[in-house]
Amino acid sequence: MHNMKIESPITQDSTPIVFSAEMMTEINAVIAMFPEGKSKSALIRILHIVQTHYGWTSVPAMNTVAEILNIQPIEVYEVASFYTMFHLNPVGNYVFEVCRTGPCMIVGSDDIIAYIEEKLNVKVGGTTADGMFTLKTAECLGACGYAPVLQCQYKFHEHLTKEKVDEIIEAYRAAQFVN
Amino acid sequence: MAGRKLLIENVHIPGIETFDVYRKNGGYASVEKALKKMTPDEVVEEVKKSGLRGRGGAGFPTGMKWSFLAKPEGVPRYLVCNADESEPGTFKDRYLMEKIPHLLIEGMITSSYALGANVSYIYIRGEFMYILHILEKAIAEARANGMLGKNIMGSGYDLDLVVAPGGGAYICGEETALLESLEGKRGNPRMKPPFPAVKGLWGCPTVVNNVETIAAVVPIVNNGGEEYAKIGIERSTGTKLISASGNLVRPGVYEIEMGVSVEEFIYGDDYCQGIANGKQLKACIPGGSSVPILPAHLVTKTAAGENRLMTYESLADGGFASGSMLGSGGFIVFDEDQCIVRNTYTFARFYAHESCGQCSPCREGTGWMEKVLHRLENGHGTMEDITLLEEINKKIEGNTICPLGDAAAWPVAAAIRHFREEFEWHVTHPSEAQTRNYGLIQPRVEEIKAL
Prior knowledge:
- The complex is a heterodimer.
- Chain A is built from 7 helices and 4 strands, in the order H-H-H-H-E-H-H-E-E-E-H.
- By secondary structure, chain A is α+β, with helices and mostly antiparallel strands.
- Chain A has a 4-stranded mixed β-sheet, with helices on one face.
- In chain A, helix 1 runs antiparallel to helix 2, helix 2 packs antiparallel against helix 3 and helix 3 (59-69) crosses helix 4 (73-82).
- The model of chain A is unreliable at 1-10 (pLDDT under 50).
- In chain B, the strands form 3 sheets. A 5-stranded mixed β-sheet of chain B has the order 8-7-11-9-10. Chain B has a 4-stranded parallel β-sheet with strand order 3-2-1-4, sandwiched between helices.
- At the A-B interface, helix 2, helix 4 and helix 5 of A face strand 3, strand 7, strand 11 and helix 15 of B.
């Protein structure tokens, strides 16, 4: 996978951080879904919880997850770095992941990506100066009949046009969407 | 005329996503019938009689897959639903789960009963987190109404259902990679044998079925396998959800009776209503990005001149020389303006991105194909590059643990087979290739090295 830009634990302060009681309630509920001794199965969903709370999955947060699941930190890193949804570096408040695979491409996703780059003055992979938006591309998001498509956090935005992109950006700026 | 619908007939009933409305419209009848009147083996028998084939893409007979499940004493067995829908062009499971979630829950209960599973899992791609919440709500409703938990409908049968998300990885749609992921690991496919039916989730016997496959068990149990098998042609029985995308007047999810003609599906009023913007059909990928692309003249007719039908057999007619596959039903349509080289490049990039990296032919080969196609698409390629692509193809196919390598190789081979002149045009017209679309005037570093 091309998502291997994990910061070395050596360069980040790797001291585990303390999760809030609210997060721990969510995490414990996920662990309880799996049989005794199989709590590692909760890992991916816990990483989603971590990312939802912090915006990205940092090394200290992953170390805390390892402690909770009683597994080695590397078992968390290798999973987080394999799955493309997990951001291993800080991102903006809102991450636009624009699908660019065939079915989206043939109905104009390249134009949409170029337009967002211009509109936000940011290149794919970059974050706007105000820290509001990060632009990424994604491989097939499974919404090909409603293309072009982008996903922001867990919300899908479909049938994209330049006008619709303007509206979406304005709506996020006004914090109308709660992810 | 639109055919019968067995899965999404009731999708437009207001409130069908709730237990009460779903139940009032005949929902959970298959659970009632199976648990009260049938033995697990009788349910398996009906599924065998139905001729149902796996709807995720491979088309393997479901009843046979179920009958392979090992049943050692004292070892739990699992049913795992594959809701990792990631094949480019495919979005039918998302539609089904979002619109009528109880159909999947009902299918899971009836199928789990048939297989003797007391805990079953739905593994859903992480991008569909909002659907995970829809499913969990449906599961809570089903539990509150006595359809899940202990002693379901007084039958003595117990079942728990758990939904688990992935994190963004196409490979987790491969069943053994899915099981690895469900165990909280990287999605690296396992060597087979042992097959999941013997050693699956946590080393226990496991059946992995696609969402649509499990949903189809509901009408099969309700009406009987023979009734289901009456729909369709030969070994393509029942109905199939088709995800139609690309340059169509009306893209979307359609439930078709197997055997509808491709022409009717593309142009018919009940289906896609033709090519968008009054343009002509150029090509079609009928079963998701992994299956061979067909040029216009082979889309509606086979090479022998017969009408091409929406069945496993008819779409495959002609083999790889002039046919394709039904696959997952991801039906992608291209109009006359589309560039096949560019499309092939996006798919190659997709597979290079999604290769798990375990087997070198796939890890390296998909990366090579992406780079070679990139330079062809951007006007920096040579005629030898076309030959090189064909050679890379041969070195990937059949040499990897899982089918991702084949899935990456075949579409490239088919695109060159049917649209070679378009690849050659990119070589003979470099400046036009560079300025059209999003061509790079300057080649990438690795392309400079290769030139």
